[in-house]
């Protein structure tokens, strides 16, 4: 059955959901878990879970690659009515995944040692985010 | 059974296929739908479906990030025989997804209110594109 | 049952695994194959398999977009202790997929004529990489 993970965000950055996914998968067997964020201004990443500087640097890189729409370099953008962070959020959500599919063995996601699952919030204001999840048996 | 969606494109930009996917899923139950574009110069996006300026701005951003190969800044590229839009199309197809996996509940894709499914054509000339689709029951 | 593909890399670039995936799928029927790289400094791409200049150009583009962290333009990065190629590798692994889902018909991945499956190694030193695979029947 489909499950919805509810994630409350409070500004741009990575929010780890690995523990939530692990707990939900706990009684499943072999298969895959599918995750999809139900929004167009946030992404889902599998990323390194050891040094929090990695998460900080990811945000710093993408903020430079896709500056706010009130930055002079971005003045060609037209979708600006919802704020200077809105169109860059859509661009980041095109560039980084919104759906992930992860193999599962004996109820455990087959992540590597250093991999965690993250919601990457791209908007400035707090948002209530939904991640739809489905488990499929192999 | 695998299905092929045929999409005729007529220049770069986003082509919505949400309706086609919804109709095809109509008699399925719970599970996931897998979509994969069978080409290396187009992408599949889940993106905002309300303001068409978002689609225009996405194209504008990626055309600036990955200019045509006859642009002076791109003169280091070697794969140029198929036209100045060809290698940039491969780069965009590396940067934006070519496969999507979407949870399905009661025959309906679990998309958020503002999410649509799009083929993003990266080539200039018209192309006949194929998107392979598979439904898996949960 | 989940399978692990072992890929030994020897520097940055694309390593084709299409043949390995085809052989492993050989006795399966209709469904999908899920692939996920179990590392945060490598990606999985479906890309063009005809002209090797495409693979060379992909690497050249992303090396310019995400320079080493000892490059003056990247001095804002903090996660630098593991070498100048490490944080750029994480950024590339955020920007290009780490999981792929591919429809399968009669035991054959439904790839287009020009599509191959590649591990994209982002690190400089040789690495032993694992790609987890799961087949799901439709």
TrEMBL record, chains A, B, C:
Q: Which InterPro entries does this entry report, sorted A to Z?
A: UPF0047_YjbQ-like, YjbQ-like_sf
Taxonomically, which superkingdom? Bacteria
The record ties this protein, via Gene3D superfamilies, to: YjbQ-like
Q: Which NCBIfam families match?
A: TIGR00149_YjbQ
What is the similarity comment for this entry? Belongs to the UPF0047 family.
Q: Which named protein is this?
A: YjbQ family protein
